[in-house]
C-alpha cells in the first residue's frame, strides 16, 4: 500500500512539473511583455505601423496585417487543394493508392520548414520576379510557400475525418439513388465537418507560427503591403530578426508581440474546441 | 435545364482529380528535387567529416552529433515528464474542469509558434541562467516544445484502453499501479511510442528554437555546455548564405532520409507492439 | 566531467565563445581554425547574430568575445575594445548590371527611397530592388553612419536580410537588386560599384581613398590571462594579421 502512495506522489510530482513548466512559459511571456504594452498603450502598440524600437516606436500594425494576409493567402491556397486531395484520396481512390500516399504525406509533413523556404527561394521567387514583377520576395511567395507547407497537415487530418464517417451513411445515400459526388457533398462532408474544420484550424495555426520559411521568402520589409508582390514582415519574422540583440524595452516589445501571437493561437484553439463540441 | 447529376459528377471528379494531381505534383517535386540534388552528396565521407571553411568543404559530422545530442536530451527530459503526467491525468484524477483546462493549456502550448519558445529559451537559458549557447539550452527549450505533444498523444493512447480491462484487473485484486504497468501501459505503448517518434521527427526539423538556444558552432559538441548546430540549422545557414549549394542539398537529403527512417521505425515498432499486446 | 562552456567558470576555460557580427564571422572562423590547429586543447565556437547581438552577449557574459563591425555606442563604452582589422563596405549590384559608379549623395537618396528606379541612374527603367540589413547589424549601423548621416533614414520599403551572405545571394540572383555587404565577401556574381570614383579594394581601404571603411572590433568585459587572451594575441600577431590580410582585410598593426 505504501508503494502505491509513493508512486502516486511521484506521478503527481511529474504532472505538477509539467503543468508548472507550461505555466512558467505563459507567465514569463506575459510578465515580460505586459509592461511594454502598458507603457506604450495597447491601442498604439496594435494600431501604429511605426516600428523603430531603437528609437522608442513600438507599433506592430504593419506586421499584424502582414501575418494576417500571409496566413489568409496560405489558407486560400491550402484549403481548396488540401480538401480536394483529401476527398479524392479518401472517397474516390482505391485502397492501394491510400496506403502508398499516407506515408508520403507524413514524410512531407516532417520535412523541415527551412527546406520549403529554400526551395521557395530557388524556384518560386525567381518565377514571381520574372513573370509577375517586384523583387520576388513577397507576400505572394510567403503565402504560396506556407500554403504548400500546411497541405500535408490539412490533407491527412481531413482524410482521417472523412474515413471516420461510417460506410453506412454512404451506402444509405447510394441506395437512395444519389451519385457518388452527391453522397460526398451532402452526406459525408457534413458528417466530417468538425474534423475538417479542425484540420483547417490546425493548418492556420501552423501558418501563423511559421518563422524560418517566411524570413527566407517574404522580404521582411517594414511597410504595410499594397500589393501581393510587396515584401512583408510577419510578427514571427520580426521576433526572429531582432531577438538576439534586443534588450530593455525593445525586448519587452518582442515578448509583447509574443503575447499577441499567443492570444491568436488561443482564440484559434477555442474556436476549434467550440466547433467540435457542437457536433 | 438541369444537368444530369451523373454527368455533373464527371466534371466535378475531373476537377478534383486535377487539383489533386497538381497538389501531388508539387509535393513530389519537393522530394524529387532534394533527392536528385542531395543524394549524390551523401557519401560516407560526407557523413563522417567535420565541416571546414564555414561549411563550404568537408562533411556534416558535427551537425549529426549535435542533432543526436540535443534530440536525445530533449526526449529524455520530455518523455518521462510527459508520459508520467498523462498517466496521472487519466488514471488518478477524475474527468472534470481542472483536467479540461490542463488539456486545453497543453493544446495551446503545442500550437505556440516555435520562435516564441526560441525567445523564451534565449532569454532564460542562454542569458539569465548563464548556460550560454549550448546543447543544454537547446535541449531544455526543445523539451518544453515537445512536452505538450507527448502529453497529448500519451493521454489519447491511455484513454483508448478500454475501461473493461481495468475493471477486470481490479476485480482480480491488482493494485492501481500494477494495473497500469501490466495492462494499461502495454496497451497504450504503440500510441505513446508514436507520440515520441513524432516528437523526434519534429526535433529534426526544428530551426527557430535551436538557432537561438544551441547556437551555430561548427565543431562537434562534446559537453552539455558546448554549442552545436543541428542539421536543420546547418542547412539554413548554408542555403541562406549561399555557402555551398551541394552541401545544403546533401544536408537536406540526409534530413529527409532520417525522417523517413524514423517514420518507418515508428510504424514497424507500432505494428510489433500492437501484435504483442493486443 | 563537464567542461563548463564559454569560459564562465573560473576553473576550466578551454572553450572560447565568440559571437556577433556576420561580417567578422568568416574571418573569425579562419583565425579560429588556425589557432585550434596550433593549440589542440582549445575549442573556439563562433556564433553569428549580428554586431549588436555580439556586444550584448559579451556584456552579459554569454560570450567571451563579442565581434562587432561597428563602433561602440555610449552605453557600450564600458567594454574592452580590441580593433583587429579594417574592412570596407561594398555597394553591390548584380553582375549583369552595367552600373559602375555611384556618388555618396546618390547612394543616400536611393536608400532613403527618393531614387526608386534604375532609369534615374541612366539605366533601362525598372524599379530598384533595395536590400538592407536588420537593425542590429554592425554593417548597417556603419553604413548608416558613413552614408546616411544623422538625418536620413533607410526607407521602410527596403528588403531586409539578416546576414551579409543572404544579401549577397539575393543580389547575385536578381538583376535589379542593390545592396551593401562587407568588402571581403564580394565574389564574381556581384559587382562592387565605385563610390565617388573609388573602388573598394584592399589598397583603397588602406590608404583611405575608399570612404566606406569601418573597423572590426572584438569586445569583452575583461581579458583575463588564459586562452582568450592568447587567442586575441594571436589575432594581433603578424601571423594572425597576415591571415586577415590574405583574406582581403586590412590589418590594424602596421
UniProtKB/TrEMBL annotation, chain B:
Transmembrane segments: 16-39, 59-89, 101-125, 131-151, 183-201, 248-270
4Fe-4S recorded as keyword: no
GO BP terms, alphabetized: phosphate ion transmembrane transport
Pfam families tied to this protein: BPD_transp_1
One GO CC term, this protein: plasma membrane
InterPro entries per record: MetI-like, MetI-like_sf, Phosphate_PstA
Leader sequence residues: none
Recorded GO MF terms: phosphate transmembrane transporter activity
Membrane-topology annotation of the record: Multi-pass membrane protein
UniProt keyword annotations, A-Z: Cell membrane, Membrane, Transmembrane, Transmembrane helix, Transport
Membrane found in the keyword field: yes
Occurrences of domain ABC transmembrane type-1 (ranges): 64-266
Subcellular location(s) per record: Cell membrane
Superkingdom, natural source: Bacteria
Stated family: Belongs to the binding-protein-dependent transport system permease family. CysTW subfamily.
Protein name: Phosphate transport system permease protein PstA
Organism: Desulfobacca acetoxidans
Originating gene: pstA
Amino acid at each position: 500500500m505504501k508503494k502505491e502512495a509513493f508512486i502516486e506522489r511521484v506521478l503527481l510530482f511529474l504532472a505538477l512539473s509539467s503543468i508548472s513548466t507550461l505555466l512558467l512559459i505563459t507567465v514569463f511571456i506575459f510578465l515580460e511583455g505586459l509592461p511594454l504594452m502598458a507603457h506604450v498603450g495597447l491601442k498604439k502598440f496594435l494600431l501604429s505601423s511605426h516600428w523603430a524600437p531603437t528609437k522608442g516606436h513600438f507599433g506592430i500594425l504593419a506586421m499584424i496585417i502582414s501575418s494576417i494576409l500571409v496566413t489568409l493567402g496560405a489558407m486560400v491556397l491550402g484549403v481548396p487543394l488540401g480538401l480536394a486531395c483529401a476527398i479524392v484520396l479518401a472517397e474516390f481512390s482505391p485502397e492501394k493508392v491510400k496506403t502508398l500516399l499516407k506515408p508520403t504525406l507524413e514524410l512531407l509533413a516532417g520535412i523541415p520548414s527551412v527546406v520549403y523556404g529554400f526551395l521557395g527561394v530557388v524556384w518560386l521567387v525567381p518565377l514571381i520576379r520574372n513573370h509577375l514583377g517586384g523583387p520576388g520576395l513577397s507576400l505572394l511567395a510567403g503565402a504560396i510557400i506556407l500554403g504548400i507547407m500546411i497541405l500535408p497537415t490539412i490533407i491527412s487530418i481531413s482524410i482521417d475525418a472523412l474515413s471516420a464517417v461510417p460506410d453506412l451513411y454512404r451506402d444509405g445515400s447510394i441506395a437512395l439513388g444519389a451519385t457518388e459526388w452527391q453522397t460526398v457533398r451532402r452526406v459525408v462532408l457534413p458528417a466530417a465537418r468538425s474534423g475538417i474544420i479542425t484540420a483547417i484550424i490546425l493548418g492556420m495555426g501552423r501558418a501563423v507560427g511559421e518563422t524560418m520559411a517566411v524570413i527566407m521568402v517574404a522580404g521582411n520589409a517594414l511597410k504595410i503591403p499594397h500589393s501581393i508582390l510587396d515584401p512583408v514582415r510577419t510578427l514571427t519574422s520580426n521576433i526572429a530578426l531582432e531577438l538576439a540583440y534586443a534588450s530593455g524595452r525593445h525586448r519587452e516589445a518582442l515578448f509583447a508581440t509574443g503575447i499577441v501571437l499567443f492570444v491568436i493561437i488561443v482564440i484559434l484553439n477555442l474556436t476549434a474546441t467550440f466547433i467540435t463540441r457542437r457536433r | 435545364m438541369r444537368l444530369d447529376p451523373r454527368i455533373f459528377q464527371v466534371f466535378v471528379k475531373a476537377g478534383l482529380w486535377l487539383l489533386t494531381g497538381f497538389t501531388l505534383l508539387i509535393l513530389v517535386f519537393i522530394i524529387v528535387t532534394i533527392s536528385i540534388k542531395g543524394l549524390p552528396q551523401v557519401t560516407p565521407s560526407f557523413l563522417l567529416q567535420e565541416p571546414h571553411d564555414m561549411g563550404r568543404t568537408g562533411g556534416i559530422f558535427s551537425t549529426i552529433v549535435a542533432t543526436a545530442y540535443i534530440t536525445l536530451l530533449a526526449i529524455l527530459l520530455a518523455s518521462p515528464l510527459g508520459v508520467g503526467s498523462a498517466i496521472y491525468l487519466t488514471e488518478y484524477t477524475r474527468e472534470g474542469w481542472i483536467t479540461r483546462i490542463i488539456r486545453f493549456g497543453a493544446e495551446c502550448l503545442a500550437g505556440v509558434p516555435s520562435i516564441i519558445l526560441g525567445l523564451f529559451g534565449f532569454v532564460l537559458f542562454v542569458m539569465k541562467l548563464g548556460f550560454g549557447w549550448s546543447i543544454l539550452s537547446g535541449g531544455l527549450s526543445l523539451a518544453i516544445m515537445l512536452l505538450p505533444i507527448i502529453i497529448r498523444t500519451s493521454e489519447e493512447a491511455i484513454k483508448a484502453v478500454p475501461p473493461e480491462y481495468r475493471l477486470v484487473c481490479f476485480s482480480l485484486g491488482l493494485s492501481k499501479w500494477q494495473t497500469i504497468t501490466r495492462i494499461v501501459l502495454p496497451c497504450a505503448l504503440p500510441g505513446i511510442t508514436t507520440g515520441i517518434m513524432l516528437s523526434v521527427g519534429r526535433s529534426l526539423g526544428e530551426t527557430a528554437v535551436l538557432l537561438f538556444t544551441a547556437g551555430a558552432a561548427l565543431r562537434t559538441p562534446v559537453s552539455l555546455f558546448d554549442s552545436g548546430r543541428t542539421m536543420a540549422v546547418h542547412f539554413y545557414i548554408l542555403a541562406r548564405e549561399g555557402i555551398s549549394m551541394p552541401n545544403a542539398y546533401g544536408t537536406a537529403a540526409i534530413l529527409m532520409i532520417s525522417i523517413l527512417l524514423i517514420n518507418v521505425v515508428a510504424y514497424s515498432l507500432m505494428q510489433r507492439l500492437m501484435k504483442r499486446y493486443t | 566531467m563537464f567542461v563548463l562552456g564559454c569560459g564562465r567558470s573560473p576553473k576550466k576555460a578551454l572553450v572560447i565563445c565568440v559571437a556577433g557580427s556576420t561580417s567578422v564571422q568568416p574571418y573569425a572562423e579562419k583565425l579560429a581554425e588556425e589557432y585550434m590547429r596550433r593549440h589542440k586543447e582549445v575549442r573556439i565556437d563562433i556564433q553569428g547574430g549580428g554586431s549588436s547581438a555580439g556586444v550584448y552577449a559579451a556584456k552579459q557574459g554569454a560570450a567571451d568575445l563579442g565581434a562587432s563591425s561597428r563602433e561602440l555606442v555610449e552605453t557600450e563604452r564600458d567594454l574592452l575594445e580590441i580593433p583587429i582589422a579594417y574592412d570596407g563596405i561594398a555597394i553591390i549590384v548584380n553582375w549583369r548590371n552595367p552600373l559602375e559608379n555611384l556618388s555618396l549623395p546618390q547612394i543616400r537618396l536611393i536608400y532613403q527611397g527618393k531614387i526608386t528606379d534604375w532609369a534615374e541612374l541612366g539605366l533601362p527603367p525598372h524599379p530598384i530592388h533595395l536590400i538592407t540589413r536588420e537593425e542590429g547589424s554592425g554593417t548597417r549601423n556603419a553604413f548608416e553612419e558613413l552614408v546616411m548621416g544623422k538625418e536620413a533614414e533607410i526607407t521602410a520599403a527596403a528588403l531586409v536580410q539578416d546576414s551579409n551572405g543572404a544579401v549577397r545571394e539575393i543580389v547575385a540572383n536578381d538583376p535589379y537588386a542593390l545592396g551593401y555587404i562587407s568588402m571581403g565577401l564580394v565574389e564574381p556574381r556581384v559587382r562592387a560599384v565605385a563610390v565617388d570614383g573609388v573602388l573598394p579594394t584592399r589598397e583603397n581601404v588602406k590608404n583611405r581613398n575608399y570612404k566606406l571603411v569601418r573597423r572590426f572590433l572584438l569586445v569583452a568585459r575583461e581579458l583575463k590571462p588564459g586562452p582568450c587572451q592568447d587567442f586575441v594575441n594571436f589575432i594581433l600577431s603578424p601571423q594572425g594579421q597576415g591571415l586577415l590580410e590574405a583574406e582581403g582585410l586590412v590589418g590594424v598593426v602596421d
